[in-house]
Amino acid sequence: QSRRSIHSPVSLRNKSIRIKKESTISQPTILWFRQDLRLADNPALVAACEMGLVIPVYILEDAKNQQWSPGGASRWWLHHALLSLDKSLHGKLNIYQGDPLVILTELAENNNAGAVLWNRCYEPESIERDGLIKSSLKDAGLNVQSFNGSLLWEPWQVLKKDDTPYKVFTPYYRRGCLSKSAPRRPLAQPANMQLHKLEHSLSVDDLSLLPTIGWDKKMHEHWDISEEGAKDRLDEFVFNGIQDYREGRNFPNKKNVSRLSPYLHFGQISVNTAWYAANDAAALIDNESNLDTFLSELGWREFSYYLLYHFPALP
After folding, report:
1. Distance between CA 86 and CA 227 in Å, rounded?
2. pTM for the full model?
């Protein structure tokens, strides 16, 4: 069988996938980065590193495969987030563009991988895609695992007494989430990462994410698009901004606005890290309502994913 290019739009329909298995000792693990572009508190990364050699992969999906494509500002942020992640991975991030099922299947086959790991996404479109990928790779004999790296509580964990999902935020958050066990503590960055760079990886520039007109220049003055920048932003907010969050958040020019949204969206910091950073600073916060309001805003983020999960026609 001829070896196909990793970028070729090959249809896998009616094709039986067979991945050659050799000694499991030498088999690398493919780690698929998505909206979790960080090393700290990354459950899939931790699990992959425990297995041994890791092939870190990012795949920019073709627009034709997506119902919604990211806008210019999101693409600009993603460009710099990927550069930062690649630097954190010592230049070992493998970048591709196309259909994730085709690309992951070929990567597993060509590199004798034993497992493919990722952190879960919760939008209906992503769930459908990931389910297809997981079943296809499992049928091919691979160990496929997904983890919660995005939410404080899994959507299926928080239900009403009749086992139906909540539709109103306050009972969802107060009666549902807060009555559950506390969210897990953030995981440390793996101390030992054995990373493998492949020959045919694209570069971040190859993805053409940056705008052709330089409207983005002033944005660089206000954002450090990196995992370290996310940590600094969180620290600045917790120590200087959360004190008057309940009222100050209504004024975008004030320091009380957390400015964590893009970091959370692209996963450069985890919601668990934000949750516990705020909780651990409770002694420094004069008015408890400011802490409660910030945590409930993280709860609103949870509720959005929760509704998309339980009501997939919502979009």
Report:
1. 11
2. 0.89
What are the φ and ψ backbone dihedral angles of 144, each rounded to 5 degrees? -120, 125
Backbone φ, ψ for residue 301 (5° rounding): -60, -45
The whole-angstrom separation of Cα 31 and Cα 171 is 37
Check if the beta carbon of residue 56 is closer than 8 Å to that of residue 82. no
Burial class (CB in 10 A: 0-12, 13-18, 19+), 213: exposed
Dihedral (CA of 221, 189, 97, 13) sign: negative
The residue type at 153 = W
How far apart, in whole angstroms, are the C-alpha atoms of residue 70 and residue 72? Answer: 7
User: What digits encode the pLDDT tens for the residues 196-235?
Assistant: 999 999 999 999 999 999 999 999 899 999 999 999 999 9
How far apart, in whole angstroms, are the C-alpha atoms of residue 36 and residue 150? 8
In this predicted structure, which of 1-5, 138-142, 270-274 has the lowest mean pLDDT?
A: 1-5
- The C-alpha atoms of residue 144 and residue 136 are separated, in whole angstroms, by 10
